[in-house]
């Protein structure tokens, strides 16, 4: 019985080491990354990013996104606005249409999360 008590006492007196490493993401970077992930956490937005990545010209008109997504133009524009607010896409107005391109640098930040 004394051996069991000693074992319990040893377990209670052990101190856990807190992991600290330069590769551990900082709190502010974690918040920024979480906000970025929230922006892409939607199937439509993931498809939009995929379409922009795959675009030969590196940009797409919102008018060309409606049919493949099977959504209305206002809905597509809403999703693109969320991506733009997150800094993942940029918008250029040309006549009555808006053209969107992927911010490759910001997209690379997103990609680093999974590497």
UniProtKB/TrEMBL annotation:
The keyword Membrane does not apply. PANTHER family: ARSENICAL RESISTANCE OPERON REPRESSOR, TRANSCRIPTIONAL REGULATOR, ARSR FAMILY. SUPFAM superfamilies: Winged helix' DNA-binding domain (SSF46785). Pfam families: HTH_5. PROSITE patterns: HTH_ARSR_2 (PS50987). It comes from the Bacteria. Residues 25-115 form the HTH arsR-type domain. This is HTH arsR-type domain-containing protein. Keywords: DNA-binding, Transcription, Transcription regulation. One of its GO terms (molecular function) is DNA binding. Gene3D superfamilies: Winged helix-like DNA-binding domain superfamily/Winged helix DNA-binding domain.
């Amino acid at each position: 019985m004394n051996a069991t008590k000693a074992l319990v006492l040893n377990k209670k007196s052990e101190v856990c080491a807190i992991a600290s490493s330069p590769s551990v993401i900082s709190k502010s970077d974690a918040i920024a990354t979480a906000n970025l992930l929230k922006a892409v956490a939607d199937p439509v937005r993931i498809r939009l990013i995929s379409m922009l990545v795959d675009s030969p010209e590196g940009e797409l008109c919102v008018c060309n996104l409606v049919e493949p997504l099977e959504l209305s133009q206002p809905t597509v524009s809403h999703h693109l606005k969320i991506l733009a607010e997150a800094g993942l896409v940029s918008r250029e107005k040309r006549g009555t249409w808006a053209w969107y391109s992927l911010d490759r640098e910001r997209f690379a930040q997103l990609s680093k999360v999974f590497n």
